[in-house]
Design goal:
10 strands
């Protein structure tokens, strides 16, 4: 069964950091680009970052607070988030082909004091 599963979300205080994981199963990660997206309450989904199969990455948020990486041996892509702000609160999802393929269900990130 082909699956994409996110984990690592939770409640964090403003200024804190969090590392999300996107684990794939049923297929090999090596040949796939993976994108991270987020959707805040009442807002449209937006791209956060995407990493190609070769490791080239793009940050859609124009911010150095997000770092995407991949470990093909673990079939996992990560999103490291730094200096989190309340406006980063959202459901974070990952998808193959940077959004054009298989999606996970997401993991909730809440930034609040």
């Amino acid at each position: 069964q082909l699956q994409v599963v996110e984990s690592g979300g939770g409640l964090v205080q403003p200024g804190g950091s969090l590392k999300l994981s996107c684990a794939v199963s049923g297929f090999t990660l090596d040949d796939y680009a993976i994108g991270w997206f987020r959707q805040a309450p009442g807002k449209e989904r937006e791209g956060v970052s995407c990493i190609s199969s070769g490791g080239t990455w793009t940050n859609y948020q124009q911010s150095d607070r997000f770092t995407i990486s991949r470990d093909n041996a673990k079939n996992t892509v990560y999103l490291q988030m730094w200096r989190l702000k309340p406006e980063d609160t959202a459901v974070y999802s990952c998808a193959t082909d940077c959004g054009g393929g298989l999606w996970g269900r997401g993991t909730q990130v809440t930034v609040s004091s």
